[in-house]
Amino acid sequence: MSQAPLPLPAEVFAARRVALAERMGRPVLLLGNGLRARNLPKYSVEFRQDSNFLYFTGCALPNAAALIDAAGRCTLFAPLPAEDDALWHGVVDGPEALRARFAVDALRDIAELESAVTGLGLPTLAIPDEEVNRLGARLTGLPLRFGVDHGDDALVSAVIDLRSHKTEAELIELRRVAGITAQAFRLAMAATRPGGHEAHIAALFHGALAAHGLTTGYHSIITVRGEILHNPDYLNTMGAGQLLLLDGGGEGAAGYTVDITRTWPVDGRFSGRQRAAYEAVLAAQRASIELVRPGVRYRDVHMRSAEVLAQFLCDEGLLRGGVDEALATHAHALFFPHGVGHLLGLDVHDLETYGDRPAYAPGRVRSTEFGTAYLRLDLDLLPGHLVTIEPGFYVVPAILHDPALRARFKDQVDWDRAESWIGFGGIRIEDDVVCTQGAPEVITDGTPKDIPTLESLIGQGPSALERLSL
Ligand code: GLY
C-alpha cells in the first residue's frame, strides 16, 4: 500500500470537488480501479488509478471509492490494513492517517460502501476496471462499460468541462515532468550509435525516467521504422543512414503525462533528403504552434501543417499540381496521414474514452476523408487547452503501394520518384502546447529539435549499451 502523500496540493483536489458539486448539485459516487491479477492471483499487473478518480481525489490506492456530496465534501472508502500488513508491506496507515493523507472529510472501510450507497441512485462513471464496473452498475443501476456505457451523462459533461482546461497547478506538474523527460531524450540522443539497438535506447530512456520517479504515460515508440506510426516493438539494430524516432513521455504520481516525439539520424548527421524533410516538418510544426491561440479552430492548426508539408512535397517533385490542389484533394495525406495532434493531460489522448465529444465542438463531426479522418481534435481553442502539435512526413509502403490510392491520385503523384523514397522511414516532431491569452507556451521545449543542437548531441559519450553495462 503506497504511503505517498498527495501528488498535488490538497487544496487543488478540494477545489475540484467543489467545482464538481456546483455543476452536479447532488452527491456523486466515483469508483477507483482494482488490482488485476498477472500470473498468480496475488501478483498484479502494474496499477494505474482511473484518471477521473485521480483527478478528484489524488488517491492511487487500489479498490477505493469516493462519495462526494452536494457541497463537495468527500468520504473516501478504502481497504483498511489487515493485521499482518505491517509484516509484508511495512507499517501502513490506519483510517485517521489515511483520512489526513488524502485530506478528505471522512474515511471509511471499502467493505461499507455497498450499504452506504445502495438504493441512492447516485450518478457515477465507468472506469477501465470492468469488475468494479459490475459492482458500480449494481450499486447505482447504471449500465457501465468503459468506453461504451460511460455512466451518468451530466457527470460526463462536468468531467469533460473541468479536465479540458488546465490550471496553473496542473501546468506546474506538467512542466516538471516535461523537464525530466527532456533529460531522458538528451540521454537517448547522446547514446545513439550505428550498430546499437532500439532496445538499448528504450532501456536507457525508461531507466532515466524511472530514476526520477516517473513511469510512462503510454507505450513508448522507439524505432528506426518510424513510418509505422505506432510501432510497438524494439527489435531493430540501428544502422548508419537511418533515422531513429522516439515518441515517449514521462508520467508522474499525479497522473499527468507529456507526449514528445523527436527524430534524429543514427549516425549523427542528416543526409540531404533527411535534412530537407526534417526542415519541412519542423517548419510545419512551428507554423502550427504559432496558431495555438484563443479562438483559432484546431482544424486550421492541422491544415497549416498540411500546407507547409504540401509545399515541401511539391518542391521535392513528389506531388504535381501545386499546394492548393494537394490540399483540396488530400494528396498531401499520402505522406502525412494523421492529424496534427490531440488533447493531452491525465490521458495521453485526454478524455478520448468519451470519443469525439470532448474534442469536437458541438455540430462538428469527424470527416471520413483520407487524412482528416484521423484528426482527433476540432475545437476552437481556449486558454487552458493543452494540445500536442505533431506533424510528420512518412514514406509508408502500405500507402504508396495501395492500388486504390494509386488509382485515386494517379496524376498527382510522381510514383517513380515516390518509389525512390521507399526505405526512408518517417519523421515526426511533437511538442505539448498550452493555449494562453497570449503567445502559445511550449511546455516541452527543453527537448532539443533544431538540427545543429541535435547534431551536436547525437553520439556524444558512451553508447547506450556501455551506459547500461556493469
Ligand atoms: N504519442 C502517442 C500517441 O499519441 O498515441
Write the layout of secondary structure elements.
Blueprint: H1 10-24, E1 28-31, H2 51-57, E2 65-68, E3 74-78, H3 85-89, H4 95-101, E4 106-109, H5 113-117, H6 130-140, H7 153-164, H8 168-190, H9 198-211, E5 215-216, E6 221-223, E7 243-248, E8 250-251, E9 260-265, H10 272-290, H11 298-315, H12 323-329, E10 386-389, E11 392-394, H13 397-400, H14 403-408, H15 415-419, E12 426-428, E13 431-434, E14 441-442, H16 451-457, H17 464-468
Parallel strand pairs: 3-4
Antiparallel strand pairs: 1-2, 2-3, 5-8, 6-7, 7-9, 10-13, 11-12, 13-14
Helix pairs in contact: 1-7, 8-9, 10-11, 11-12
The structure holds glycine (GLY).
Short note summarizing the structure:
With 470 residues, the chain is of the alpha+beta class. It has helices at 10-24, 51-57, 85-89, 95-101, 113-117, 130-140, 153-164, 168-190, 198-211, 272-290, 298-315, 323-329, 397-400, 403-408, 415-419, 451-457, 464-468; strands at residues 28-31, 65-68, 74-78, 106-109, 215-216, 221-223, 243-248, 250-251, 260-265, 386-389, 392-394, 426-428, 431-434, 441-442. The protein has two domains: 10-163, Creatine Amidinohydrolase, Chain A, domain 1; 168-467, Alpha-Beta Complex (Creatine Amidinohydrolase), CATH 3.90.230.10.
